[in-house]
Hints:
The complex is a heterodimer of chains A (282) and B (340).
Chain A: H1 18-45, H2 48-56, H3 59-92, H4 98-104, H5 107-110, H6 113-124, H7 131-134, H8 145-170, H9 173-181, H10 186-215, H11 220-223, H12 234-243, H13 247-279
Chain B: H1 2-24, E1 27-33, H2 38-56, E2 60-65, H3 69-77, E3 84-86, H4 90-98, H5 111-114, E4 117-118, E5 121-126, E6 146-147, H6 155-171, H7 176-188, H8 197-205, E7 212-216, H9 217-227, E8 232-235, E9 239-242, E10 247-249, H10 251-257, H11 260-269, H12 273-281, E11 285-286, H13 294-297, E12 304-307, H14 316-324, H15 329-333
Parallel strand pairs in B: 1-2, 1-3, 6-7, 9-12
Antiparallel strand pairs in B: 3-10, 4-11, 5-7, 5-8
Helix pairs in contact in B: 2-12, 3-4, 6-7
Amino acid sequence: MAASYGLGFKRPSAIPGFGLALGFTxxxxxxxxxxxxxxxxxxxxxxxxxxFWEVVTGARTLAALRLSFLTSLxxxxxxxxxxxxxxxxxxxxxxxxxxxxxxxxxLPFALPTAVAGIALTAxxxxxxxxGQWLAPLGIKVAYTxxxxxxxxxxxxxxxxxxxVQPVLEEFDRELEEASATLGANRRQTVFRVxxxxxxxxxxxxxxxALARAVGEYGSVIFIAxxxxxxxxxxxxxxxxxxxxFSYPQAAAIGTAMLMISFGILxxxxxxxxxxxxxxxxD
Amino acid sequence: MKxxxxxxxxxxxxxxxxxxxxxxxxxxxLNVSYDPTRExxxxxxxxxxxxxxxxxGEKVTIEQSHGGSGKQARAVIDGLQADVVxxxxxGDIDQIAKTGKIKADWQKRLGNNSSPYxxxxxxxxxxxxxxxxxxxxxxxxxxxxxxxxxxxxSGGARWNYLAAWAFAxxxxxxxxxxxxxxxxxxxxxxxVLDTGARGSTxxxxxxxxxxxxxxxxxxxxxxLDELGAxxxxxxxxxxxxxxxxxxxxxxxVVDAKGTRKVAEAYLNFLYTPEAQKLIAHNYYRPSDPKAxxxxxxxxxxxxxxVSIDDPLFGGWAKAQPKxxxxxxxxDQIYQPKSTN
Lengths: 282, 340
């Protein structure tokens, strides 16, 4: 209940080193996060507000932003569902090869994104192992927005699994048993007792997977096809502007992405806060 | 205290090593180049190092950096300590020159507009040429898929685009509206826009996408060497572009590092008969064909070449903004509500 003390500054904490830790945190965050981001915003500010608006609302920029955020939202949603199921299977059941599967989850983290992109393209191209079976059905994955979603699902999976897993491991089994003794069926237990407890972790995983997917360049570029207005992601448009030596325009698109991402992440945090209040977890 | 002493000793030692290194070090040059020149400069660097040692007794090591031409130019602008740049486009070196790192008159300092070799754009088709692609207008036919990288991100792709433009201009008697229409039809047949030349080669050769790849002449020959002459054929169009990849010393860097003499010697070496021979052997067209092995020269098909300085384009300073700038002709192709 630390939060109810209000501003913690005046009340000396039981743990020493507050000043040092806070100073370190502020310096580090400034150096690593805030200064580069300010540089980005400053660079795009050279365009002026009208110029910034013109770049960001250009038809091609809007199409790229829409594609980037829609495919990322889709991929993060898919990962939130299946990542939770995978975490559930890995925590709740004991089966041969479980540890190996557990290790596989981290592979998308470890693999250089370009390698992932090339491998996925090789699989899903019309002459690839998977693509050759989809092509006769008229399903095209590589070089379409579908391919982008496939790549983003791949790179985002570990975020959900790794955030949900520890919460599930710590989950108090007595709560489930209590719910059962009070007459809840298995379904009610899962959806009304367990899911609310897991939801903050799932949302965190969702937010991380989303943030990662929005900025992803390396793996997507190989599978996307990169056609303007169809499969051109916003990070590619930034690279294109850089190739034209239009630094402020590139920074403007970057700033727009930053603001949209911040808005989405802020919304996710609001949902989490609301959820915490509602269920009384702290 | 013990730790501090150790650290001090380590620091002293490393400073001593650095100082000693500075005295005895061999000279190192960094050559920042574009994508497909890896094999060429590997051969040239070896020959130059030998030549330089024989002439001056000094050892020189040349490091290579490769990537998309525009990206490489940006790296140099942002502070990459390149002694020399050997890029795909004059416009990219001009961008570096704008920052003052290279003197404005760079292109006049070496022969042939500072291009020791030229190249051109040819077609790579599947074996037996099943779609019977002979010339540029075959690329605009329905059902033909063309693989070429994005001119926005690839220097080579800009030459591809300009070669097609030059063909259209000749065919339609200098009618720019028809040229635009031709280019639009051609790019409507492009299913994937890779970001670089090597990416397009992979899409075409490994993924089996497309009927024809627009490629640097040297890349097309390399593809035959490495991927098998039994899989692809080279088709030479009736007309193509004379691509002149230029070279320059980065004045600011060589003056700071004190490497001007060797850097200039390195670029001059590219014009010597020895280097010209290597250039032809690596499938680049030498600026001095007399020096090359006639057998190597025989591999280059005879093709009418249009230069970027032709009145049609009026040099890079005019062609770049007109075709490739934000909102330029290439962008207009993809505008949903295009005016043409």
